[in-house]
Design brief:
The structure is a single chain. The chain is mainly β. It has one domain: RNA polymerase II/Efflux pump adaptor protein, barrel-sandwich hybrid domain (OB fold (Dihydrolipoamide Acetyltransferase, E2P)), CATH 2.40.50.100. It contains no helices and ten strands. A five-stranded antiparallel β-sheet has the order 3-2-1-4-10, with no helix packed on it. It has a five-stranded antiparallel β-sheet with strand order 5-9-6-7-8, with no helix packed on it. The two termini are about 25 Å apart.
């Protein structure tokens, strides 16, 4: 599992739907959750988890829910799957793709949906 530590910037709530904007240094991570049963508020930090299968890697920036700029650390091509490790703001993110052979530039973009992010815990100040 991929783990990141990010700071809450803003929270938007409408009925049961909550959009939480986290800051990972100068990059933004959007998280969409239904029930807000966490003690989250602006300025608090939280541990975020993203499954490797929920992450895609692109050579070009695009418009998507979450787009983080990173740098390729490692690519392991297998017979069926390829594993790509990208460094984003000091954190290692692993993506698993169903491709026998992948080829990326050094600088890439990591993309994932806002509902694929899990807030595993809120960190104490």
């Amino acid at each position: 599992m991929n783990k990141l530590i990010a700071e809450v910037k803003e929270i938007y709530s409408l009925e049961r739907l909550n959009l939480i904007k986290f800051s990972l240094n100068f990059q933004i991570i959007n998280v969409l959750i239904l029930e807000m049963n966490l003690d989250l508020k602006a300025g608090k930090k939280a541990e975020l988890i993203i499954k490797p299968t929920a992450i895609s890697i692109l050579n070009e920036k695009c418009e998507f829910e979450n787009v983080l700029k990173g740098e390729i650390k490692e690519i392991k091509n297998g017979e069926i799957l390829s594993k790509i490790v990208v460094i984003v703001e000091g954190f290692e993110l692993e993506a698993v793709m169903v491709k026998e052979k992948v080829n990326f530039k050094k600088d890439v973009f990591v993309v994932f949906k806002s509902n694929d992010v899990i807030i595993s815990k809120v960190l104490d100040d």
